[in-house]
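Notes from the pairing session

We agreed to fold both candidates in a single pass and log them together. This is the raw record for the first candidate, unedited. Please don't reformat it; downstream parsing expects exactly this layout.

Candidate A
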Amino acid sequence: MEKIDLILEKLEKLEALVLSTQVNFKLKDEDRYESEKTDELNAALASASLEFPPIKLNRQNPYLASGYSDLHEVMTKIRPVLGKHGIHVAQRRKFEDGIIILRTRIWHSSGQWIESRVLISPSRNTIEAYGSHLNSMKRFEVMDILGLTVSEDPFDDDGEADMQNTTQVAGKGTKLKELYDKKEESYQTISENEYREIMKVLDLDESIAEDILEKLHIKSFRELPKSRYAPTINRMREIIKINRR
């Protein structure tokens, strides 16, 4: 009996230790993606989502011949609704293990919150590239975590851009030409004089040519659509002016 009592006593102590560990164990706030409870926040978001106004395209990307809604447009439209329901959006950058992480947190007046995290990795180590990439990621994260959509969103293409076949692209022409074909717009390239004018501008700074061609998704400036000539050459001059400062 003494052995049985001893075994039972040890089991009781072990059970108490396990329960104590479970009660005291809590994830650090830095490791969590949401507060312990989110019921009030979820209810507020559900109500707010019914009141969000339509978000439309307000800017044009001259390199991709497509429109988009910038961060200011998105936030201006949704802030009044969020504030009405006691919701606030906070975004901050944090340097972790040699990389920059953008944290987007949705706060509720109850203290409840949810968070998303994304890596910030601009293609080039310049202030212009960093600012452009950061603002784009801020916009994507806010829209994603709040479930926002944009009317005529160019990225909502049924996965077409992600599934493109290289052979088909080569056969049809450039990516930009495909965009114009889809819009049923004419695809007329720049004239010889316009091409020479671009070459004159590039003589001032040849280093920007490759990056601009990559953004336009073309292999030569001779393939540049005529309607893209003015914004492209103006952008070249702006970049060269900035680089010379």
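Candidate B (folded immediately after A)
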Amino acid sequence: MIHFTTSNTKDDLSGILSLQKANLPEVLSKDEIISQGFVTVMHNYDELNNLNEIENHIVAKDGNNVIAYLLAMTKQSKYKIHILIPMFEIFDSIFFEGKLISLYNYIVVGQVCIAKQYRAQGIIDNCYAFYKDHFKSKYDFAITEIASTNLRSVNAHKRVGFKEIHSYVSNNTEWSIVLWDWKTNS
């Protein structure tokens, strides 16, 4: 039975790390990257745990096994992982509804991943429903960036309710910044 919860144990964090490792571009074929998507950052245990101490990540579990996750990052997370600082700086320099993003209280979806054998079963939608229910009383919206070449992720985020508010190019990669406004989306 699949259930959705917050990451509360070392095993939960280890499960997240295992899924990350299995879904990095360097371990996937070109066909898998195109059809199944990928993750771009590999965290270490301490980084993941430091983020989890600020806000718990969301996990889907089949029994005790982590089969999907959505990472949670806040403004406090900005300096916890060096490679992500530019993402936060871009967020803080763009506008949403006439106001700088930095003036809102937002949560960042740090990364999303579903185990291969559990894809196309609605798990991402259920993970995001849990994410929203868990965080909507504390944050105005969820925001993230997606490599534009990661079409599976782009389409999944659109389906959930994210809308592109900005795009930019960095290191020959086009990034789409998407936002899920919890005040207007039911």
